[in-house]
Amino acid sequence: MVKSMMNIRVIFAIGALTMVMPVSAEVLTDPTRPPTAMIPASAMAAGTFSGPVLQSVLVSQGRKIAIISGKEVKVNDKYNGARVVRITDTEVVLRNGRQVQVLKLFPDVKKQMVQGEASSATDGRSVKKRGKE
Predict the structure, then answer these.
(1) Where in the sequence is the domain holding 59, given as residue range(s)?
(2) From edge to edge, which strands make up the β-sheet containing 54-60?
(3) Across residues 91-114, what is the average pLDDT?
(4) 3, 105, 112, 114: which has the highest count of C-beta atoms within 10 A?
């Protein structure tokens, strides 16, 4: 009887110890953090980025909304003391007094004109311009 009580105490003690042991969980990344591709290369090289980051833009008929560093803004809203002057599909313009800051959705993407045959079709088809014959 004494031996069985001792076994029960040992089992109870082991059970109590396993309950207070720290539970290890999977490390999760922040789902709201912008993808690495959206962080400017200069900021990535420095190891950190500071200042506002344009994360998303929603432009529809009658509505323009941007997400700047997690905060939703519209035209004429204030963001960190600066007024949102313009929202386009690729950038947001902030004005603080005489200082103007342009936040680009893809800051490292450079647009270039392509030389060659004029084509405005998006599926690769060539489009011929009509003119006087």
Answers:
(1) 52-104
(2) 54-60, 63-68, 71-74
(3) 88
(4) 105
